[in-house]
Design goal:
Blueprint: H1 6-18, H2 25-86, H3 89-102, H4 107-122, H5 126-139, H6 143-160, H7 163-173, H8 182-195, H9 199-215, H10 221-233
Helix pairs in contact: 1-2, 2-3, 2-4, 3-4, 4-5, 4-6, 5-6, 6-7, 6-8, 7-8, 8-9, 9-10
Length: about 240
């Protein structure tokens, strides 16, 4: 005789019940227990299984949506790059606007906004440039682009130098720095102090930034050189 494992035997008992085959007393008792268990917990089991199926379907649908969104955003970004190559500023900015509206959840939207901000700034439209930077600093799904948008926006606000601009820059710099960009946050805070002729606090911020930047080897040497120039301008590293 073939030996049937208990877990397989239970399945067979279900099948036997459906086709009304005669069962011995032990099998009938097991079947009755299973039926009682199902009667008691069937709503719970059905609910759990249904929720799991819905969750899987939602996850699969979301993954498909993300893939399709990224593909469509990539094509629109390529259109923007082509427009830049042709020197077509209007088409470039339209593509950036469309990426913001249609694909805001993709990294392409923030990336294109940073590029559009540079193009608008070079064309002398600082207000438009700052609109792109503000959008990216609030909506970027990529932490790197988010940090760059905030740092570039505060730089432009500091350069404008009105009381309102200083207040907006101050609010951004008081936010928790994006991880990995702490040194650049401190450097920009030094710029903020220096623009208001607060040399002592600017020096403290630059010194703190210098220490962190030296520890963060991933930053290019140019970043250290620029910070060194700023630090030297306010008296150099304290001894």
């Amino acid at each position: 005789r073939y030996r049937i494992e208990l877990r397989h035997k239970r399945l067979i008992l279900y099948l036997l019940a459906w086709i009304d085959m005669p069962l011995d007393l032990e099998e009938q008792e097991q079947l009755d227990q299973l039926k009682a268990f199902w009667q008691k917990y069937r709503n719970l089991i059905t609910g759990v299984v249904t929720a799991a199926l819905f969750a899987y379907a939602a996850y699969s649908g979301y993954q498909w949506w993300r893939t399709s969104q990224a593909a469509a955003a990539s094509q629109l970004y390529e259109t923007m790059i082509t427009a830049i190559g042709k020197g077509d500023k209007d088409q470039t900015l339209r593509a950036a606007d469309d990426l913001q509206k249609q694909f805001s959840g993709t990294p392409y939207a923030a990336m294109s906004s940073l590029v559009a901000a540079k193009i608008a700034s070079d064309a002398g439209d600082s207000a438009k440039a700052m609109d792109y930077l503000r959008w990216a600093s609030k909506n970027s799904s990529d932490q790197g682009y988010l940090a760059l948008a905030k740092l570039r926006l505060t730089a432009q606000l500091i350069e404008l130098g009105t009381e309102k601009d200083f207040a907006e820059a101050d609010a951004i710099l008081k936010e928790k720095p994006v991880a990995g960009f702490e040194a650049l946050w401190l450097e920009r805070r030094g710029d903020w102090y220096l623009a208001q002729k607060n040399t002592a606090d600017a020096r403290k911020s630059y010194e703190a930034a210098w220490k962190q930047l030296n520890d963060a080897k991933e930053f290019p040497e140019e970043a250290r050189r620029l910070l060194k120039v700023k630090l030297d301008a306010v008296g150099g590293v304290a001894q």
